[in-house]
Amino acid sequence: MRFKFFILSILFGIVANAQLIVKGKVVDEFNNPMPFVNVYIQGTTTGTTTDDEGRFAFQTKKRKGVLEISFVGFQTQTITITSKTKYLNIVLKEGSDVLDEVILVTRPKKRLKKKENPAYRILKEVWKRKRQNGIDLVDHYQYKKHTTIEIGLNNLDTAFIKQIFKKDYDQTIKEVEYDTDGINYYIPIYINEQIAKVYGNNESNDEREDIEAEKSEGLGAQGFVFDRMSRTFQNIDVFKNNITLLRKSFVSPLSTDGFATYDYVLYDSVVQNNTKLYNIYFFPIRDQDLAFKGNFWVADKAFTLKKLRMEVVKGANLNFVRGLTFEKEFEVRNDSIYIPTKNAYEGDFTFLDKNEANKGLTIKKTINYSNYVLDKPLADEFYKNQIQKIRPDQYFRSDEYWNKQNIEDNKSTYKLISSVKGKKQIKRLTGFINTISSGYINMPFFNMQAGPFWTAFASNEVEGFRTRLGFRTFNTKDDRFRLSGHLAYGFQDKELKYGLEAQYLLSYEPRISTSVAYQNDIEQLGSALLNTTQLLGRTFGSTALFSRGNNFFLSKVEKYATNFDYAVHNNFHVGFNFSHSRIESASPENFSASYLDDLGNLQSKVVDVASDIYVTFTPGRFVYGLGVEQRFGRNVFPSIVLNYRHGYKGFLNGTHEYDKIQIKYNQPILLGKFGLLDTTIEGGKIFGTVPSSLLSAIPANQSFSLVPNTFSLLNYYDFVTDEYVSTHFEHHFNGFILNRIPLLRKLKLRSLATFRAAYGTISDENKAINDGLRNTSGNRTENILYNAPNQVYYEYGFGIENIGYGNLRFLRIDAIWRSDYTPPSNSIAVPTPKFAIRIGIRPDL
């Protein structure tokens, strides 16, 4: 991640008047900034170290204390601080004062061998005990968990504050908080609090979390993007060798293989409550690696972790991320059991680049743990009965309840959010963020949105230039009812197309939703294989603005459809679809979708009346939203989809009876520092005789962009099957290779490799109904020639990703080769190249 806001001292987020904020800068006698200076309150471990610019900032619940500033080779300085202390400018003088416990004081210019590093002895003891120490040592546990998620705008100057608050500026400037630099300001726009009780049984490996209360305030509830961004901060387990963050695997500083990624510096030690604590710093060997920098405190004898602070290094270059900071605090009991007392995560997100002067978006997540009860067992069944959140207002509690909790820290935040959420400038900013993430633009009436804007323009040989206007109702992400649709017009065929879909959540518990849809539009049926809940056609083949070759392989589809979805669990759904579709070629003179019926007559239109029963299983997937529409996280989880389809002949004028079964399995596999392997396997079989419109075309892609699970060097309908299997493998090295090449690693690029293959067959019966067809003039039509990949077709490629500038690095370029195959011999098919360059756009977050 590129990371120009280099603050090592970002702690739990700036909170309100109940806490003392300590900030300042440390320089030497020549006014040079001093990094890595210890700044702590005497008698505690509360404090931090200065960053590369000599700056520091932290908070404490103490209203006063004595601040100790120390650095090896310089005189230790102490300063009394009170609630009136604002910003400290500290000058350290060289001297002979040296901490007695210091073992190694600077990062070595030359790497020490592992066994020569004084930190190795301590880390070796931590590794030995990390599966033995901690809360896992007890059979049963309980604790209270208070989670606060806060979203705000950062790096705001006084001119911006004046523009927003105008006449209220003088009063507001007294209430708003300083940003972490102590100069500019931070304004919260959304806050969510949740109080829960957690019960664990280590004997059965069960854990139950009961939410007791929840409340939120602000603008973040209007869109899914804020949920997705706050999900960046999951429970980071630093005791695992690898930490999953934004679908990437970061090496933990406590990894048993940590010395291959980090330089460790045993800086000093202190004695607290008769326990000796070692302070160890860690730095990535290569700045471009997916790694952290920071420090942690380890208790002597038991070698348990007391406190850890780390931030993602700037070279990791995560899209839209200017900084990510993580802090953990532990309490040690009985010299062996460490229990978490606080987790504090903070992210700084910007759109264009990581320039410190730019305004950004801050996400803070703080978790406080308290009221621990150890070794008090409850009934075994109690731990297994999980309570799920099913309604937006399920855990609403009155103000009286929250007042009894004695939570003072967030009161001023709620007050400030109430005053800013109605400001036009703030609404514009949050609306812009939601538009960029969803593609929809808020309309000034009836809670409507227009979009998505990336499907507004397209081009193909049938419609020529195509425009599309989409819309949907949207009040909040938890809407129980949603109406969406679109209007489209082709300037060549001069025809209006349209579609409309209504969705409604019938029941929260169990979660049951239904939808109905109608469309009359053009679709690219040869660009996708398996679909379950999508009723309206949204295939990329008919919405691409630029494509190679000719694309007459489009179909007119008039469809009525309905869906019924039952959620056994958030990640386990069973559903039923019923549809009635009239399908015919959109360009009969160029592309014939005709077939011979049972009497040998030529038919140009298919009436497909079909039902689908599907099962989807996605263990571990994050789900956002409790309304009829949900969004899913991009965390690393497996996905299994099974679909059975039956076509009805005669019923509602259906022309074909058939059965079709399909299965799709996707599994992203994190391989530690070697990257991420994304694997997809899909297969299907049709029982019965059906025309090309109902067969399984191997998904082609004639656009110049990369589309998941498609073949870039095939034309639409090059391969048509009634029995198929396809595989797609993408390995993202996440910098493992290019970070080790001196001339390339400064470019922050990452390499990847791909391999895709398809195999399929088609029966003689399905071939027969398409052979020898003639149009009404008696001339032979250019029909789909049934060409199945019975020799295995494959494509392989190598690519470079993380291409861009500043904070926008979501471009990817792939070089792709294909195997030999015999394409269909018709006049409109354009031969495909054996080699091509394709571009992908993927703004990961």
Number of strands: 44
Strand content: 35-45%
Please identify the structural class as seen in this structure.
mainly beta
Radius of gyration: 31 Å
Uncertain ranges: 1-18, 96-106, 772-782
Main sheet characteristics: 18 strands, antiparallel
- Globular, elongated, flat, extended or rod-shaped: what is the shape? elongated
What is the mean pLDDT?
83
**SS element count, helices:** 9
Distance between the termini: 12 Å
Q: Give helix % range.
A: under 10%
Describe this protein's structure.
The structure is a single chain. With 845 residues, the chain is mainly beta. 9% of the residues lie in helices and 43% in strands. A hairpin with a 3-residue loop joins β18 (321-333) and β19 (337-349). The longest helix is centred in the middle third of the chain and has 15 residues, at 424-438.
Features:
single chain; mainly beta; 18-stranded antiparallel beta sheet; 11-stranded antiparallel beta sheet; disordered N terminus
Task: Give the gist of this structure.
The chain has 845 residues and is mainly beta.
Write the layout of secondary structure elements.
Blueprint: E1 20-27, E2 38-41, E3 47-49, E4 55-60, E5 65-70, E6 77-81, E7 88-91, H1 118-129, E8 140-156, H2 158-165, H3 169-175, E9 177-178, E10 185-201, E11 206-218, H4 225-230, E12 242-245, E13 248-251, E14 262-272, E15 275-284, E16 292-299, E17 305-312, E18 321-333, E19 337-349, E20 360-374, H5 380-384, H6 399-404, H7 411-420, H8 424-438, E21 441-442, E22 448-450, E23 457-460, E24 464-473, E25 481-490, E26 495-507, E27 511-523, E28 555-569, E29 572-585, E30 595-596, E31 602-603, E32 605-617, E33 623-624, E34 631-632, E35 639-647, E36 658-670, E37 676-687, E38 696-697, E39 720-721, E40 723-732, E41 750-761, H9 764-768, E42 793-805, E43 808-818, E44 835-841
